[in-house]
Amino acid sequence: MRIRKKIYFILCLLCTAICTGAQSHTDFDSTNVQGTHSNGAFAYVRFIPGHYSSMDIDVLDNIYLVTEGNRLKKIKANGDSTAAFDDVKKYGNPSLIDVSNPLKILVYYKNFSTVVVLDRLLAYRNSINFRKENIFKVKTLATSYDNNIRIFDEGDLKLKKIDDDGTVLTESNDFRQIFDTPPSPSLIIEKDNNIYLYDEAKGFYIFDYYGSFKNTLPFLNWQHVAVTGNRLMGFTSDTLYSYELNSLNLKTYKLPDFLKDYSDIKAINDKLYLLKKEGVEIYNIL
Fold it and tell me: In 3-state terms, what secondary structure has residue 9?
C-alpha cells in the first residue's frame, strides 16, 4: 500500500512539472507571435493593439493616436485609454497635432488656417483662425514655455508668439535680414529655453526664447524629429540618430529588420515607438 502511494505521489509531481513546462512554452510562443524582439540596442516593452492612422507621444509617455473612426485618443504608457476627442476631422485631416505640452494639445488644420486647442482631457477649449488675425501662411506651430503658441509666419518670414486669441505677443526680425537663404521650417519645438526650427533641406535653426538667433546644426533629411532631454532625435531611412547637445556627440542606431514596416515612428523619453498595421510597439533604447 505504501509503495502504491509513493508511486502515485511521484506521478503527480511528474504531471505537475509537465503541465508547468507546457504552460511556460506556450507563453513564450505567444510572445513571439506578437512580434516582440530585442537586440543590443532595443529592448521590447509592450504592444498596444489597434488600428490607427497617426501617433505622437508627450514628455509623460502618453500616446496620442488617431483612430480609423477619426477619434483622437490619449493612452497611458501601460495601454489604458484616458481621454478622447471625437471631432478631430471637423476641418478635414489635421496637418499636425502638437503634444509638447500635455496640458495644452494643439490640432492644426493648415488648409483652413485654424488651430483647435484642447485641454489635458482632450476637451475643446477654443480655436484660432489665423486669417482673421491677418496671418495667412503658417506651416508649423507648437506650444511655448509660457503656455502661448509659437508659429512661423511664412507670409513675412517671422517667428511669432501668439496668445489664445490669436494676438501677436512677440515676433522676430524678418528672416531675410538674418539669413541669405531663409529656412522654411516644417517643425517647431520649444525645449529648455531654446526654440528649434527644423528645415529638412537646411538643418536645425536654434533660437533663444526671446526669438534671437543662436546657431545652426546641419543635420539634413531627418524625419520624425524630437527633442528629448538634451538630445535631438531623428530618422533617415533605416537609421536612428541621437545628437547629444551638451557633449556634441552623435550616435547612430541601425534599425534591425524587426523594427521596420511601420507607418509612423518616434524616439522620445529613451523609448522607441512604432505604429504598425495592428498597433503600437514600444521598445527601450539601450
Answer: helix
